[in-house]
Amino acid sequence: MTLQLILNIFLCILLTTRVLGQLSVYDIPPGSPGFQHGNSSQAVQFDSHSLFIDGRRIFLFGGEFHPWRLPVPQLWSDILQKMKAANFNAVSIYVHWGLVEGKSGELNWEYHRSLEEFYKVAQRVGIFVIARPGPYINAETTGGGLPGWLTNIADVARTNQTGYVNAWQSYIKDFAQMTSRYQYPNGPVIAVQSENEFYVSGDEDPTSTEYMVLLEKALRENGIDKVPITANDVYPSGNFAKGLGEVDLYGFDSYPNGFDCAHPPQWSELANYYISGHQNSAPWAPVFFPEFQGGALDGWQGVGYDGCEQLTGPEFANVFYKNNVASGSTAMSFYMIYGGTNWGNILYPGVYTSYDYGSAIREDRLLSPKYDEVKLQGMFYHASPQLLTSSILASGQSQTYTSNSGVFTSVLGLPEGPTKFYVVRQNSNNVTTPTSFLLNIDSSVGQLTIPQLGGHITLAGRESKILVTDYAFGSNFLQYSTAEVLTHTTIDSIDYVVLYVLPGQSFEASFGSTSINNVNLSGSPSVQAKVLNGSVVLFGTLSSSTTALVRFGNTAVLVVDKFTATSIWNPRTIPSFDLSPDTPSILVKGPYVVRNATIIGSTLELVGDTNRTTSILVVAPSTVRSVHWNGSPVSMTKSNLGIGLTGTIPGPVPSLSLPNLKSLKWRTADSLPEVAMGFDDSQWVVANKTEVARSQKPFYGKVVLFADEYGFHSGSFIFRGSFTGGKSSAVQLSLQGGSYFGYSAFINGHFLGSNQGFNGSDIVNATYSFLQGTLNNGRNVLTIVMDSNGLDTDWNANDAFKNPRGIRGYQLIGGSGDFDSWKLTGNLGGEDFPDKVRGPLNEGGFWAERSGAVLPGFDDSKWALGSPFVGIPKAGVQVYRTSFALDIPLGTDASLGFQFTRAPTSNYRSLLFVNGWQFGKFISNFGPQTVFPIPEGVLNHHGMNEIALTLWSLDSSGAKIADLKLVPLGVLSSGKEVVTDAMVSPIYQDLRGPSN
Ligand code: GAL
């Protein structure tokens, strides 16, 4: 036995005991001791390095998902399983007060608002939950989650003022009591966030501080006592890290690449304030990012989410997320991991229907290339507990670390132990060309310059690598590797480790081992091995689609190119929250996603998805004799790699039979009967307020015409103002609907004009002259139909969400007369909306919505035939209905969407209702969205679907829709949960009565 070998064995033992043994507590004076490791008996704890769950350190790898943005509870498991498959161990959720409490005092936690259901799904999937109830959430949703009725109170939101504090009591109480039952270990909830990015200027700001104190008190008093209460600071400025309102666990958010989706190649440089910001704010806690940029938002007139996906794509995730690790972070959650949809008026004016967000999992639930990158990192972080006690030992661009000053190196390691992580990247994010260098490492065998056998380490432009030295896996260890570690697992006493580099790059990896005599190479010839100073050194240059296997002793090294690496899954075979990298797991290469792996007797049951006929490689214990894929046996043979079994699993059905919407029978009706003089508005609300409590007052006119003051908080509103006599020459109006809103005005049925909040303008002022012959000497009726894109958000806590929606000012010009009365309507019932399933915001005030014509079950047999492709020849609103059946084969996950083509000359706004759910708002002038994905469960994939489409022509020349298609966005053969939720949605007869 050589000295080297003895040293290697000693190191192995040392490394393994460090990983499995008791981990030391970091000695930094704590903030609040309640969840401090060492001070607390709670199941969730933390110290300055990481969180602990059940006494085990975890790398918190989380992503944000808003269950209410995917209002089909049976699809939640799909998102969570896809997250789990990428080694996410936590999901962060916002809870939406405005959706839960549509009327003050009436809370509804059912269906897509069901927290309990969500917690149960998360528990089943085995993923922790960070719950973020606000009450203010921002989140690009109407009012930032504050309910519409809150606009009517005087007291300022997000302060300690009584009216506001009283307003959120029931909501927070319900939330906390419900959530308290699911606190870990009784459920998946491991943290609860108080408020959102709540910024105060220290003690000078007592109204805000006291509000935070009251909120945390309410959370605690209602049972949130087993998990830390957290805060997400906007910037590491220490808000609520200590002192009054101090939370248990402090974190800060970061969106370093900004939101300019029109210029995706323009990157920011990496932030260098994380380490100092954390040191100045909460050095006793881990560097925790409650929100780290996972995508970007896009608004009306934007470029579309492809640009956002590129701006924050796989290279971004590669460089920026690894930089978080280089900054000492072991806890981060990406905002968003799945964005979803702003269906049914949940948007705020800065975004449109899609909230895809350029996330790793797209709105249509398909996986983007960024998913691949986060999965590779997730697997590594899970497999590398040594990271959780590492500190930053050194960092910089000095040539102490590399031969190239264009490379920035951060060295993380255990001060007293051998394992080190070298996070390398190019100095500047503006460099988009590759660079090569040698790395100087300080390893257990002394100082080395690697690679030792010649060649270089290469970084592509905008690439970062985490290279390990003295890295334990199973009972073996890597001395160093210039390829990155994907994961490792021990199966039948063989320690498998998977290494990867980009195609075209070379690598070198050195293992402590016995001798070259029994090194066995298979797969690609591009990987070779030799013995150097008693270690087995692997090296080679990888092309695309490389899979090589090297075996020696009880070690099996899979070397793959990065793209092949993305097809490797490492499911655990024991259902759990996966606290330990030692949980038994297997390796599966090939499928689109692997959701689950269970070994029952000698059968391995795999559940997952494919996007084509796929050849798979399975490395599982030798007790496994047969493999089932989604319940069906797969014929498997021994792989010629020398390990594992291979077989072929089926792809999706080759094509779907989808209806041609243009050739369907469409029926139509006028959806703006309110312009007619004789329209019966006797049931409408009389606008009788002359004062408002909020600080945003009417500009002019006697009565208040803010829709929210009368209980209408979503979508469109219609106002009818009456005046007597024909002497006035014009009407002057100030209309406020939030950016990109629209309106049309009519006098006695004659069209006066329309306008929209172009370029984001919030208020439109207009004066309309009455043409000769349009006024009566008796009663005249001015009808205004307008929509809003939701309430503004309140990021600055200055009550901006109370900016009115409606008519801010009105007056008649000439004739010295005034309006006799005003009436208005919005959604049917206002705050007493009948549809408790779809919730308070789904419907607006168009006739088609109030009458229930947008609901399934509505009888349109008496309507005339007429299609949106013909449209209307004048200004006004028309509604069209059609229906079709779908018969998507079982076991198929078909992502379907409606694709609009705009008639270039038409100026219109459209709402698309699918089985009563408003799942699309299309504004022809503003775009950019033309494809509207509809989740299965809103769309019935196994039966009838009823579609309603409104067409609001803003011009007297009329409008039509050039084309509308139901298109497949992606088709998978899938093991996801079966969706029957379409059956749950109420129909016309449930909501409006027996027949229309
Ligand atoms: C954050 C906020 C989130 C979301 C995000 C931008 O500041 O906390 O709610 O609005 O910005 O998408």
CATH class value of the largest domain: Alpha Beta
CA-atom Rg in angstroms:
31 Å
Structural class: alpha+beta
CATH superfamily of the largest domain: Glycosidases
- How far apart, in Å, are the first and last alpha carbons? 91 Å
Give structural notes.
It contains 13 helices and 56 strands. The protein is globular. With 996 residues, it is an alpha+beta fold. An eight-stranded parallel β-sheet has the order 9-8-7-6-5-4-11-10. Strands 12-13-14-19-20-23-26-25 form an eight-stranded antiparallel β-sheet. Strands 49-38-50-55-52-53 form a six-stranded antiparallel β-sheet, with no helix packed on it. Mean pLDDT is 94; it is low at 1-29. Helix 2 (73-85) runs parallel beside helix 4 and helix 5 (162-180) packs parallel to helix 6 (206-221). The chain folds into four domains: 32-367, Glycosidases (TIM Barrel), CATH 3.20.20.80; 386-591, beta-galactosidase, domain 2 (3-layer Sandwich); 661-670 and 846-991, Jelly Rolls (Sandwich), CATH 2.60.120.260; 673-829, Galactose-binding domain-like (Jelly Rolls, Sandwich), CATH 2.60.120.260. Strand 27 (547-552) and strand 28 form a beta hairpin.
What key phrases describe this protein's structure?
beta-galactosidase, domain 2, Jelly Rolls, alpha+beta, 14% helix, 996 residues, TIM Barrel, 8-stranded parallel β-sheet, 8-stranded antiparallel β-sheet, disordered N terminus, globular, 13 helices, binds beta-D-galactopyranose
